[in-house]
Amino acid sequence: MRRSETVDELHGVRIADPYRWLEDADSDETAAFVAAQNAFAEPVLAALPARDAFRERVTALLGAPTRGCPFERGGRIFAWRNDGQNQDVLVVADAVDDLEDGRVLLDANALSADGTVSVTAASVSPDGQLLAYGTADGGSDWRTLKVRDVVTGIDLADEIPWTKWNSPVWMPDGRSFTYWRYDAPGGNGLTDEMGPGRLMVHVVGQAAEADETIWERPEEPRMFARHWPRDDRWFVLSTDTGSSSGNDLAVAAHGAYDLRQLVEGHEHEWNAIGIRGNTLFVVTDADAARYRLVAFDLDPGMHGSHRMREVVPEHETDVLLGASLTEGGLVLEYSHDASHRLQLAATDGTLGDAVPIGDGVSLTGLSARATSATVFVTTSSFVDRGTRHVVETDGPRLVSHRTLPTPGPAAPAATTSRIRATSTDGAEVPAFVVRPAGDDGSAPRPTLIWAYGGFNIPMNPGFRAVLAAWVDAGGVLVVPNLRGGGEFGSDWHKQGTKARKQQVFDDLYAIAEQLIATGVTTPAQLALHGRSNGGLLAGAALTQRPELWAAVLPGVGVLDMLRFHRFTIGWAWTSDYGDPDDAAEFPALAAYSPLHAIRDGVAYPPTLVTTGDHDDRVVPAHSFKFAAELQRAQATSGSEAPILLSIDTRAGHGMGKPKDAAALEFADQLAFAAHHAGLAVDAVA
Hints:
By secondary structure, the chain is α+β, with helices and mostly antiparallel strands.
């Protein structure tokens, strides 16, 4: 394979980049590389003994019925559902108990012949009359917004291209909405760095070209803005500069847009959750690493300032994830040791009843309205694909709670426990351990670690078909709560960012070493899998501690830490990773960058790198360059352990992927891990 002489000098350091040519996604040479890698990988993957069995297992799990969290608009009840189709469908009914027979309002499966066009945003107007929705092609983050009449089910003429990130937020008239838009790309829209965007308002029936810009900062191209929460009197604007940075809040009366700042500096998170009268409720980590709920009086006093008061103080152990207004109070969402719980409260912060959603679960959806006493909730666990809850409240008091039945087979039988390991800095790092039914832990077993560790994103006990299939086949699943994640508040997150990113990797090694020391597994039985930032984690673990793993599976990973910021939205990740162009932040990035940590003569474990050719979030060049360099280096070690690169065509970062394509990808990953970790898999009965 061709290696160029490309060398950059960064802060006085010469950095070779021999596969820079793979960054050109449109070149014939890159296309030939993709075809050759797939042609090399496919026979190896096809010969894996457990591939067909895992494909059956994953297909069954993906095909089992799922039901999304109901929500009410204008007296109608809406919900996403799936009965085995490639894509979900949106249904509407007059009551929550009628959803099983609800009318199909939007069927994403009808948008393309191959199932690769998906719905990635949807918002119903407050009166329940109109649906604004966004479609994405081939897994791209780019959306085209359209509008559908809820009563007739017919699309109107509205069509807005080149939108990203924000879902439409309806304005008080119910006939216009805000959205985030970019200019049409002048080059390759799947790889080129993005310029400034702008917050627009679209009037239904009006041509997109006539839409009004209501906020933009062309001189600050790395800033986002979002209008939220929706309110009939007040317009609230949130601005931020990165994927996990703090944000500012500003407010104006609707129609005037004479914005007045509530908070500024982008130092803390200020997550506005709702307005009652002239009071804006906000969850923040300002002076509260585990977050607290505060309220702003939006009518300024005589000095023009907005008064802030504390409503719910920081909890002594649990993290306040969010809150919602109900007709007479609040519903608070907490994380307790990385599992979720719900508690009712009065609007003055007085705590009320707990909501019995179960133990060891994640909240996957919550819909509450300031004008309703009914709260809809969905939860899941590592093996439960979803439970729907209907909660009736009277302010802080729980009136009733029930669950709605979900058709389909029972979840795989398993038990979940917690372990804790001591990391290099003395901190205690926990992990979930999920064992298949009948495993008493008396002997080491093939084990899969699924991990992330970044962007303040928590790893809670949620359902993923790829993980449930591993447990169902007899493997042990371990999900650590590493630094960089959001399980234990903003301090836990910040301890795994920028110059401290190595701590995330050290946390992972502490968990792996404890699993081995306590006899849960052995290095010959331990596989590691991660996606996106988790793909970075897997790539770093592969290059730093190759002896720990029986197999490593980096998926759609950020693997070139010296050029990640030069593609699409990569610059937004500097809030977590640091900026390679900053001389002070460059050394830490260069020290762990997986692409640059590969060394000749090292025997790396069996590795399966996966990506999608339409991934315009973490561009596939990361995986291309990493796999090419790893294959070359592996050849110098004399090791015969395979290094495979599998590229899914017409696929992006993972959103909206057809179930049949997802089942094949997951089967490849699981079969590869099983083969090298020694998990014998029987065919599905």
